[in-house]
Structure formats: C-alpha cells, structure tokens
Amino acid sequence: MGTESGGAGCGGGGPAEFERLVSEAMKRCRARGEAPAVWSAEVANCVVSRGLELPSAELGQFLVSRLSSNFGEPSLWKFLDHAMASRLISSLHALCLLTPRVLSSRQAQPEAYRLYLDLLARYTFSLEDVPSKASRDKIVRAIDANLQLSRIYGINVGELGHTLVIFFFSTIVSLIDSTMDDWGLQIAPVGRQSGSFGSMEHHQRNVDISSQDNKRSGHREYMRNMNSLIAMEVLENLTRSRKALALLRLVHMNMPDKFNGLLQRLQFLEACKLPSPNLISAKEVLARLSSNIHKVLAFESDLKRSFIGMFLDIRSIKNVPCSDSGSALSACWAPFDIYMESAMDARQLPLTSTTAILTETIFSLQALNRASWQETFLALWLSALRLVQRARLCILLCIVPLAIADVLMDDIDLSSTFSCDPSACILSDLGHGHRIDEKVHGLRRNGLISSLQLLGQFSGLLHPPELVQDAANSAAAKAANFSSKQMKGNDSVGIGDHDVLVKCGGNMRHLIVEACIARRLMDTSAYFWAGYVPTSVMSIPDSSMKEMSPWSAFMEGGALTASLINSLVATPATCFAEIEKLYYVALNGSNEEKSAAARIICGASLSRGWNIQEHVVKFVVKLLSPPVPAGHNGPQSHFVDYMPMLTALLFGASSIDTVHILSLHGVVPEVAAALMPLCEVYGSLIPLSSCESRASEEPSVYMVFSAAFLFLLRLWKFYKPAIEGGAIGAELTLEYLMLLHNSRKSFASHDSAPQNEVNSSTNQTSSTSDEHVYIDNYPRLRAWYCQNRICIASPLSGVCSGSPVHQVANKILSMIYWKMTRSTSSSGNSSTTPPNSGVGGSPISAGEEPYQRPVLCAWEVLEAIPFVLEAILSACAYGRLSSRDLTTGLRDLVDFLPASLATIISYFSAEVTRGIWGPVPMNGIDWPSPTQNIESVEYEIKEILASAGVNSPSYPSGVVPMLPLPMAALVSLTITFKLDKSLEYIHAVAGPAMENCASYCPGPSMPIIGSLWTQKVRRWHDYIIVSCSRCVLQQNKEALAQLVRSCFASFLGPPDDLNRLLTNQPCLNGLLGDKIAALGVPLSIAPGLLYLRSCRFIQDKQYLSDTIIRLVVEYGSKLATQCTETSSARLKSGQASLSLAAARIKEVALLGASLLCSAGKMQLAQELFQETIPTWLLTSREEKHGEGSFASCMFEGYAMAYFVYSTCAFTCGIRVRAAPWTYSRRSHIIGIHMDFLAGVLEGNMSLGCHPVTWKAYISCLVGLVVSFAPAWVREVKHETLGRLARRLWGWHELELALSLLERGGFATMGHLAEFLSVID
C-alpha cells in the first residue's frame, strides 16, 4: 500500500527508503513517549530532507496504510489527528484513503470507527492550500487511484475541488448505507447504486465475528449500536452548513441520478420502522438530516438578503385582466403581443419557425415573471386573441397550440428542475432516450386546462369574426352532441354529427379547444366544463341533416369532378388522413388528378385548416420535390413528368398569404432547397415555338420556370444593392438559406426525438429536399446568381460582339422593337423611331414574323437581359426611345418571360443606388403624373405619422415631381400589371422591391409612387399610405428616434411624468392599437404597430439599437428619483416603492428588448453583446449631480442588465438545449460578453460609466443569469467564471459568486473550493 502513490518525488532512495525513515522517526518518538507535536516535527524533518513538499501525499499514504494494518494503536490515531491539524498531510487525502478502510471494518473495529467519525466531523471542510500544482496533482491522482472516482462517476477527476465534492457526497451515501446495514435494513438494488465506498470490493474487510461473540464485551456492542446513531449525527451536523449545501447542489445539478439515489435512501429510512425501540431517537436525527438534504432542492439563496437579491426577487405586477377585453393584462407579458404582431407582417418571411421562437419566449417569460403555468398560458391566449380583431387566426389556432405542445413535451432537464417535493419527481421514459419529469409535465398540462377554463370569462375577446362564425358554431355543436350522447348513453340510435344546431354561442374558445384536442394537448373532457356547451341548442330532425362533407365523399372514393374539386378547394380538410390521401393522388393520379390534388392542397386546407395546417405545410414542401416515378426512364428529368402537378402547386403556393403561412412554419429553407432543382431543370428546357405554345393548352415551360424562379427569389433579398453590404448578415444570400437547410438536416439526423405521424407515413418516399443541397450543384442557377450579384455590385461591363450572349440580347431587342413599331403604327404616332442598332451597336433584325419570339431556354434569356436593359435605358435617356415605348418594351419582356422581372428589378435597383441617371419629370406627358392626388397623399402621410407621434418633414409645394430614370421606368412598368389573382406571384416580387428601391432615391420619392398606385388601385389606399409612411422612417433618423420614443411613451407614459410612471398601468392598446380604422375614418396607426411594420427595413440598425438603449437607461434613471435618494441604505427602507420601481424597470427592459428583437433578432443581439453595451460602459458620459444621482446610476445599471438579459433570452432561449436556430452562437455571444466583464473587473480596461452603474449592471446581470438562465453559465469558460466569481467576492457578493460557480458544472468545482474557507 505504501507505494501506490509513486516514488518520483521521494528522493534518491525511492518510496521504500522514505517509509523507512518515517517509520524509524515514529518508533523513536513512541519509545520516548513524545507528544504528537514532537512526532510531527520529527516526521516533518524526514519529509523535508527527502525534498518533498508539505502537505505530503507520500506521508499521507504511508500513515493511512500503517493505521489500516493496526486500527487499535491509539498513538497512530493521535499522530494522524495532529498531522492533519498541522497541515503535515492533506486532510482530504487522509479522509479519502481512510473512509473505505474504516467502513469495511466498522463491526470488527468499532473504536476505530468512532475515531474516524470524529476526524470526519472536524476535517471534512478543511481544504489545505497545497502550494504547487505538482503536489495537488499527486494528491488527486492518489485519491482517484485508490477510490476509482473517475470510473465510478464517469468524469475526469482532475482537481482537488472535484475530489472534495465527490468525496463528500460519497461519504454521505456510504455512511447511510453502512448504517442501514447495521440496522438490518435492505433497500432495493435500484436505490443502491454505485457511489458507496462500502461497495468497493478491493477494500472489503468484513470479518466473521460470530465466533468472537463470547469474547465481545458489552461495551463494544454498545459502541457498535451507538456508532450508527453518531454517524447520522455527524452527517446531520455536516449537511447543516452552507458549505455542504454548496457542494451538494453541485452534485444535484450535475449528477441528478446520483442525487436521486440519495433521496431514495432517505425516503426509505423515513418510511421504515427501526427494529430497536432504543433507536427511536435516531428518527429525529434522520428527520433533520433529510431536511438538510432537501434544502438543496428547495434552495433559496442567501442572495435575497442583499439588495440585488431583493431586487431580483420582486415579482411582476400581475393585474387581474378585465373579463371583457383583457386589456389590463400585466405589462410583463407584452412581449407575447409584440412578437405575434410582428410575425403577422406578411412582407416578412422569417427563416425560423414561429412556433420555435414562441416556445422559447414562453419559457423565458414564465421564468422571468416567476409565473405559474396557468398564468403563462392565459396570457398567451389573451395575446393571441387580440390578433383576431385584425382577422389573424393562424397564430391563435395553429402556432400557439403547436408552441404549447412543444412546452408540454419539452425534455425536462433535471439539473434545472427545482422541486420542493422530490417524492413527486418521478421519471418516465418516453422512448428514444427521452425522459420527462411527470410532476412538471402534469403541472404544465393542468396549467393549460385551467387557463382555457378561465378563458371563458373574456367574452369581449371571444366573439368570432364572420369568417369563422360557422366553424365556431360547428365546434360548439360538436361538444353539445358529444355531451348529449354521453348523457343518453352510447347505445342511442339515430344521432348524427349534425343532430344539434347552435343558434348562437359558438365562440373562439370552442375553436381553441378543438385545436388543442386535435393535437392531443387535452381530451374531450373539456366538453363537460361548466358553461362550455351553449344553452341555446336544439335538436333538429333527421330529415334536416346537412349534406355530406365533400371530404367524406373524397375519402369514400368519389371521382374528382369539377364540382367536388371546387368544394374541396373551398373546404378545409378535417384530419391528417384526408391530406395524406390527397398527397398520394398528387403523386400517382392521372395528370388531371395530379393538378386537381395540388390545387386542393393549396386551398382552404392550407389557409384555414388550422387543426392540421402543420401537416399540410409539410406535404406541400414534399410535393415540391416529388420522387422519381416508377416507370420513368430516359435522360429527361422526372420533374418534367410532374409538370401539371407542379404548375398547380407553384401557382397555388405562390400567393402572398400562402408564402407567409409557409414562413410561419419555418420551412423557407426547405422550400428554397426544393425550388432550386425545379429552376435548374425548367430553366434549361427549350420551349415550344411561339405558335405551338399559344395553341397548346399545356402549361408552358416559361410559366413553370417563372413561377418557381420568382417564388425562390422571394425567399431572400435578391435585389439588395451593394450599399447595404450585408448589414443584416448572411440572411440576404441564397448560400445562407442552403447552409441553414443543410444544418437542419444534420441536426435532425442526430436528433433521436420520436417522429410524428407525418414523418412516419411519408418518410418512406425519398425526397431531394431531405438531402444536403448546395448551389454549386446547379450550374445554370449559380451562373445567374453570380451575374446578379455582379450586376448589383458594379456597373455592367460590355459584351463581346458576336458572343452567344450578344446574339441572344439582339434577338430580344428585335422582339421588343417589333412590338414597339407595331404599337406605334397602329396608333398613328410616329414621334419615336426605334434605333437601328442593338447591343454594342450591331444591327438588329426588324423582319421578325408576327408573334415570332426567340425560342431559347430561360437561362439564356436571363443572362442577356441586363444588356438589353442597358441598351433601352440608354436609348431613352438620349431621346432615341420614348418613355411610353420603354414601358411597352419592358412589359412585353415580362409577358414573354415573367421571370425576367427579377433581373429588371435587380438592374434598376442597382442603377438607382449608383445615382448615375438623371431625374425625369413625372408630368403626365413623358411619364405618368401623380399630381391628381399627391397633395392628399402627402397630407395623409403626415397625419399617419402624427398619429404615431412623429413629426414628418414637410414636402415642397409647386415643384414638378421627379424620379430617377430607372425608378420611373420601374414604377411605370408595375402599374401596367393587371390586378389579377393569377398575377399575385409577380406583384409579390415587384412590391417590396419597388419600396426598397424608393428608399435609395434622393428626395421624397415614395409619395410620388404612392400617388400613382392609389390612382390605379383605390382599394389599396390605406396599405399604400402606410407603406409611404414607412419610407420616411427609413430615410430620416430623427423621425425614427421620435417613433421609438413614442412607443415607450404610449406604453409606459412620458419619462418626465413620474407619477404616471409608477401609478398608471402600461397601456398595450396605446402601443399596438385595439382595432382597425373603419372605412371613412381618418387613417391612424399606433406607434408600436408602425414600428413593427418598419423596423426590419431600417438601414442603420446600430442607430436604432443606441436609441432604444438610451430610452431604457433614461426611464431607469427617472424611476429612481421617485423611490428614494442619495444612498442604498435609504433604498432598502422604501420597500413598497422599490418593489413598484423594480417591476417598472423590468417592463421598460422587456419593451426595449422586444422592440430590438423585432428589428434584427440574432444579429442585433450579437452586436448588442459584443459592441453596443461595451461601448456604453466604457464611454464617458455626463455625470448626474445632486439629489438622486446614486439611485439614478444604480437603476440605470439594473435597467441595462434586464434589457441585455431579456434580449438574449428572446433570441437564444434559456433552456439547456439551445434554440435550434442559434446553434453555437449562443455560447459565443454570452462567452464574449462575460470575458469582457471579467476583463474590466480585472482592470484590463478603464470604465467610462459611473462605478455604481457598473456594479449594478454586473450584479444584476449575473443574478438574472443564475436565477433564470443557469444553462448559460455552462457555456462560459470556467476560467472566466472563476475570474468573475473572485471579483464578485471582492465586492462582498459571496452568495452571487457561489451561485455562479454552482451552475458552472464540474469544471468550476476547483474555483468553488477556493471559497469554502469564507462560507459561513
């Protein structure tokens, strides 16, 4: 045993020589009867003479080995005690080596066991300062080699801190196991897991003492009995301390299974009847021990006793919402409303599932608001119901139930689940390695059910819009029919699904409950809730039963006739099986059936089939990548075989509302991946000749390509000019979409979550979208993509005469000029003579036959179009081509190949940005005139901005409206498009691009464009005016700052009105509005709504971020003056005002974070952590003097901390498993900021802000993270955590430092050990 630790440091004679010297010294001291102090001095000389450090691992190993061979020698025990007290050996090392030896011999050596317990009680937390790393490593290796800690616990035990935590926990388990054995108690094997020293076979020294019964004295028997009780008393005393609590929490958070084993042992002991009446007193000790251990689960940190702890512990002000409208809902839930309102902007196509983002928001707000799940879900429903007033039902009836389903099925991480009743924490296996905490799962489900029961009180929000009145009545009738059947018995005859009719009473709650039942979030017991079934129902005779549903006819095998197709298009499917059958018809039916099935699946089932909408979306994506048919052969792509189906599908899915629905479900990257091969194939096909294509009823190749191509381009900002330079990040590129798609596929392939019914039924069919997709796989698409980027980045270079591109461009010019000539001659207007030269000055042919158009593949046409545009735009600029003919030529080009609109937009946008084209007068002669209503449009723009609190700049009067030539050409082209539903795929591309292009024009161009469009489409008047108002905010920073300030003031009140800030409730209706303006009422818009419709298009996001931070800090400072003044001592005395002010600060921060996240999500959050906040903290600003300056500085720091925390929580999530869209970015963002904080604390950078603000910011931010997002701590480098903890300790924030390290995992155990000496 004496050589186990190795002899590298024992001098020239090795470990044997060292042990000989120590043994001789001990013999001399024993012979002389020396005191333990003399023994220590003699042995210390031996250690030092061999060149070893103190405390000595070699000496500790030798002493324990010597003692183990003779437990009955008192002098050795005394010397061991003194050696540990005098730091001659490491007490942790000695106890670790001694524990298994003593426990295995406790029956044979009860005296040794008693002495060991005494040493354990005195030296468990005595962690010596070992001077060198080599000595520390030697001690750790010796302990691990003897106890096999790394093997038993499955971790790399590399530091003394690791060893201390595991030894302490293992000792508790081992003593309890030994005591149970001594008392004759047997626990089930599942509760007797590894971790007990007594279970280590190579240390077992149990001896058969039955033969010694006659020799055993009564005293030794008494000692054995008392040792069990004393062992429990020692454990009770040890676990009572804060040090024990800190160590046990590390085990609980990092090894929940091991800790649960300890809890099971305690529960077993509490439930057992002890065999001896003399041990009844042990019950009291066990009760106290159990109470100490359970404090780990119900841990409430002493952090609360500090000011920052009181500040963080203040709960949100939870008002009782008005049962009529819910308008008084607490402001702490406002992020729900803001996010949902932002998600309903159809112009934005988020790349991330709205369900996933909303799920993370639910977890973040539930934690931050310290709310029950009933409160959380009720607030969620009320926020979603507000959208019903704007006729937005997808969020309420599909997205919110899906988000709640994710919350209910979330894999509970036991390390972050704190329960005061561990006996109720039962783990249940769901399969695939996933386990959930049944108690937490039950609490969430019960919270959902009770929230829906309470929802019935909000009658003002439950009235269904006319669109879904029948659906609501049907849902109520279904509940009435079901409950009627249950009351009459299931054997009743003649009762059909439509045997009850609801006269009135079907409301939104009935639709919500049906949406939840459809997703198995609850069962039909909801039909029996009090008041759920309307009283105004009556039975109707069988003869009055309604006609069979068209979906029933389809499922029964009915032929897809024209009437049935129309009915199926207009009627949403009711179940998954109906959509699944339709999917297979679209793949395997006749061409007519394929086309009809695609049309049906993009109809009401996708737009209004809320109970199954997520399934319909997945089928649409899969149909975009149909599999290779069984009978396909030949070189032609199988996509051509699906042309009828794909045509119907592309045009059906290209509507603005449908694309928005697809984006809400987060399938934009998957749709892009599916469209790329379609574009590559159809763009490479040579179409039929002009005459044949017009005579044929088959869809043309150009139309299918254009539909797919324009659909693809809508998914990213393909027209963004070079001036933006990627300010929003990689979201602007097709490469980023593919990177996201491929990342999701990789993520899904490693995800062991059970597949839903869609996956299980359709994964049998291979799909190209399931594979990794790269743009390089599609050379023709990649060539256009590169050309488009070059066109945007720099002026167009010349094309070589005679090249293929040159020849194609001349053919296109010939087609355009033939149309111009024909139009001019028919109208008798010969003012314009088409030039006789084409691209590069080469002659063009004017002898094309009527309707004879170039027969080229679409990619060749797109490649030549930029040169065509340059030629005709130059001709118009120099007077060789009239503006009317220019517009006619552009329109003919779009009619020829609709996909050419994309190149037209890119080219004109880039040319407007470069500013090389002069303005042209919009006078009604050369170009369309807006003078008919431009003044009214400008007035309405001012009015709508004024209603949002923005002073818009005045427009000059009496000036001829002018636009840059490319802008004028683009506007003139777009107003020629018919307002037909079939052309919506073109309008959806042209509208946003034109608005973006206008933002780069000099002067107020948007009123001119808006005037022209309102003249054309009067029913779009309000939408156009709002769009024009947004353009003002994109071009004018002062107007943007006014709007953001108006958002804060409308919600919280003006910052100068201190009484209102603290006494009035924040007004959500003031921020977002409560209704849409009726016809004839002057148009107005709430500031928050205008902001949400504009913020994504703001070019200077850094200015927006600075503006929001400035307002958050200003409101925090103003709130401080209302609480108290001059010192933190007085702050503590004003508990009521402090509570109110703290709640308001959180509301200010939540508003600021919500507004910032709406503008940029992850990119702005990253900039906030890495640049914006560090700049604010390091930049010197004007100090506040006089009364209230201390409190103002403090509250500024708190407001900034809440703001930063909330922003990161909303963008990255707080759960252990980072949100899918963040991947590794969350750990990077948080780690960078924590490194910055640690660097400033260590003096590596000089502060610019007030020291009070700095301390408040760090204390509050760390407190928020450890309290509500402990998973973030694990993602920070443990060296950084140690640096932060040491500085917090220097600020006397010991509890905050401990809380930080406790959540850092095993990596921070070494740092935690540094603080044990100062823990009370």
UniProtKB/TrEMBL annotation:
Biased composition (Low complexity): 759-768, 825-837
Positions of the UniProt region annotated as Disordered: 748-770, 825-845
Designated name of the protein: Mediator of RNA polymerase II transcription subunit 33A-like isoform X2
Organism of derivation: Rhodamnia argentea
Originating gene: LOC115750605
